[in-house]
Design a protein that fits this description.
This protein has 435 residues and is mainly alpha-helical. Helix content is 66%, strand content 4%. The C terminus is likely disordered.
Length: 435
């Protein structure tokens, strides 16, 4: 089974012409790269979840990206997207607008409309249109890896110096620049980077690109472990397994042995957070017997989301409706919020404003119509990526769709998800240009 390869890094003997070509590409892609780079700026918004906006500088940059893309499309005068691509990317708008119109308070739903359209339609479409060929794709992909390495380095430093987010009474949780109110931020970014480099390594032949990718994979493994994010661990393991299976079962077996050995060395041999990591891993299997309060809260909010959907199965309670309807549909087992502290922030109670499950959030707020529209768009992208054998796109989409069982949109890192969806969309409904 063959897989679609993509350019990795500049060859050792790159000439002046090729360097200039890469410089021109970076300049042309600067609106996309700016969104990625600005995620290094500490965000002030928290991880409210749902449709809550964060108002970060990266969000502002994503708006500029959409504007620049629109100007380029109007100047070119060409049809920007194929009919299939327009349908797949535009499908979520149907459920979003219907949920807003049928909401009990349409005015309150308008910010949710803007946020959903930004994340799931406009930014992904803009990224897709900005990428012209495989080399452009490589530039953006490696930019993701660079962000992951930098955020991971900050996270490891936080663990070693005791300046991370609070975890079991110690300020050791690696959260990067996202802070304690978005503990999934760094884990998400690092996971994206890890999926990208594994895709590059599997899709490249022997050479510099594969070597660099494997080194980056080793470097990103540690901060992912130190994030103590069970959802990110599960999504990453499954996404990498899918990439390996698509690339060939024999290779998958060899890589699994190498990854297992790396885990034993880092966690077992070097004792990197070994006790806490083992306890965190063990807690994954304790969700039914004696779950901790965070799991209890999640179960309670899932049940509340289900009751909201049952009250209005087709269109839901309306965008941004989950917080308003939560207390009337949740049981007494729900706590008042989650405790956050550390990483330079004072102790605060983080309100639980979403079910931390994207599918249930959409189902409760947009109903069955909204869920079918959004999930249908995502599945269409995944099918397109599988058909074109884009290992990076397959991995990124698989990771995101799996992670959505444990998380939803919200927090500064959300805008990066829209860039990832745009990357995946380039492999799916769009016609891939053969460079």
């Amino acid at each position: 089974m063959t897989t679609a390869a993509m350019p990795g890094v500049l060859p050792a003997a790159a000439g002046t012409t090729e360097v200039r070509d890469w410089a021109r590409r970076v300049w042309a892609l600067s609106p996309v790269l700016a969104v990625i780079a600005l995620l290094l700026v500490p965000g002030g918004g928290g991880a409210e979840g749902g449709t809550g906006g964060t108002g970060t500088i990266a969000d502002a940059a994503s708006g500029l990206l959409v504007l620049v893309c629109l100007v380029r499309v109007l100047r070119s005068g060409a049809r920007p997207l194929s009919r299939a691509a327009a349908v797949v990317l535009g499908l979520p708008v149907c459920g979003i607008c219907l949920a807003a119109i049928t909401s009990g308070d349409p005015a309150a739903s308008l910010p949710g409309v803007a946020r959903y359209v930004q994340i799931f339609v406009l930014v992904p479409a803009a990224v897709l249109l900005m990428i012209r060929d495989r080399r452009d794709f490589a530039v953006v992909a490696w930019a993701l890896v660079g962000l992951a390495l930098l955020q991971g380095a900050v996270g490891v430093t936080q663990y070693l110096t005791g300046t991370g987010a609070s975890y079991q009474g110690e300020d050791i949780r690696a959260v990067g620049t996202f802070g304690p109110t978005d503990v999934m931020g760094m884990a998400t970014v690092v996971s994206y980077g890890l999926v990208v480099v594994v895709g590059i390594a599997l899709g490249s032949g022997r050479g510099r690109a594969r070597t660099v990718a494997l080194v980056c994979a080793g470097l990103l493994f540690l901060p992912l472990v130190l994030s103590f994010s069970r959802g990110a661990w599960i999504a990453t393991v499954l996404a990498l397994a899918i990439q390996l299976a698509v690339s060939g079962l024999r290779r998958a077996g060899r890589v699994a042995l190498v990854v297992g050995a790396l885990g034993v060395v880092l966690v077992g041999g070097l004792g990197v957070g070994s006790a806490m990591v083992k306890e965190r891993v063990a807690s994954i299997t304790q969700v039914a017997g004696a779950p901790d309060q965070s799991v209890t809260d999640r179960y309670t909010m899932w049940a509340a989301a289900g009751r909201m959907w049952a009250s209005d199965p087709l269109t839901g309670v309306g965008l941004k409706g989950f917080p308003a309807y939560r207390d009337s549909h949740a049981s007494l087992a729900l706590s008042s919020g989650s405790d956050t502290a550390g990483a330079g922030a004072a102790f605060r109670k983080q309100p639980l404003l979403s079910p931390h499950n994207m599918y249930l959030l959409v189902l409760s707020e947009q109903g069955l119509i909204g869920l079918l529209a959004l999930a249908g768009s995502w599945l269409a992208l995944l099918v397109g990526a599988v058909r074109r054998m884009g290992l990076i796109a397959i991995g990124l989409l698989s990771w995101q769709l799996i992670d959505f069982f444990y998380a939803d949109i919200g927090g500064p890192s959300t805008v990066l998800m829209s860039v990832v969806l745009g990357l995946a969309a380039w492999w799916s409904p769009a016609e891939v240009k053969r460079a």
